[in-house]
Design a protein that fits this description.
- By secondary structure, the chain is an alpha+beta fold.
- It has a single domain (about 5-210), classed as Glutaredoxin, CATH 3.40.30.10.
- The protein has eight helices and four strands.
- The protein has helices at about 15-30, 50-65, 85-95, 105-115, 120-135, 135-145, 145-160, 190-210; strands at about 5-10, 35-40, 170-175, 180-185.
- A hairpin with a 5-residue loop joins strand 3 (about 170-175) and strand 4.
- The protein is globular.
- The mean pLDDT is about 95.
């Protein structure tokens, strides 16, 4: 079986923050049954708040939707930034340097959305990722500013855009028999798990069929 789950995210997205428990549960529940990966889908100015007041309004809305006992902190927001390259480049750089789990991006998300730290600045994002991963801060800064890292973020963002969706998080589930499901903006684990269960059942059925049958008749 070769079921895959790909999570498209932006590290300062509040809805990605709320979706993290679902992503963690998918990886736990389907360990050994599916391969998982995350990719950066950068938000442009149209997807970012227009002001800090608007950001706070969004946080009040999402916080009540998810029944959160706390409100997210908008202190990270800087109106002059139309794209948050620094935090996304930093977590991608950490992955290049061997930190392939979620530590770097979760640390940046926490620093921004819970502590209000201005992770849109390279030095602050580097401090957060270095502390979370144990990587050398100067090495992180240097690598995050290289062309290949930026090119990869542009490429994964471009792939996200070809999906025809606009929301982060977006989850793409695919199976070896050609089934594909795209969930955009969904933050709850139930529908994702139900879909993965259905895909796994179909793959098992096809495996059983292959044991009992040869190829289809010709003509």
């Amino acid at each position: 079986m070769s079921l895959t789950g790909t999570y498209y995210l932006e590290v300062v997205s509040s809805w990605c923050y709320w979706a993290e428990p679902a992503w963690a549960e998918l990886r736990r529940r389907y360990a050994g049954k599916a391969d998982f990966d995350w990719r950066i889908a950068l938000m442009d100015a149209s997807a970012l708040p227009a002001s800090q007041a608007q950001c706070d309004w969004f946080y009040r809305r999402s916080g009540t939707v998810v029944r959160s006992p706390f409100m997210l902190d908008s202190g990270w927001y800087e109106p002059e930034l139309k794209e948050y390259l620094a935090p996304n480049l930093m977590v991608e750089a950490a992955r290049d340097l061997g930190v392939t789990d979620d530590r770097a991006r979760l640390a940046v998300a926490h620093a921004a959305l819970r502590e209000g730290r201005k992770v849109g600045r390279f030095e602050i994002a580097a401090d957060v990722v270095a502390r979370a991963t144990g990587l050398d801060r100067d090495l992180l800064l240097a690598h995050a500013r290289t062309d290949p890292v930026l090119k990869r973020l542009r490429e994964t963002t471009g792939i996200f855009q070809t999906l025809g969706v606009r929301q982060r998080p977006t989850f793409v589930l695919e199976s070896s028999i050609g089934d594909r499901a795209v969930f955009s903006g969904l933050w709850m684990q139930g529908p994702l798990m139900a879909t993965m269960d259905a895909m796994l059942a179909d793959e098992l059925a096809y495996g059983s069929w292959a044991v009992h049958m040869s190829g289809p008749p010709q003509g």
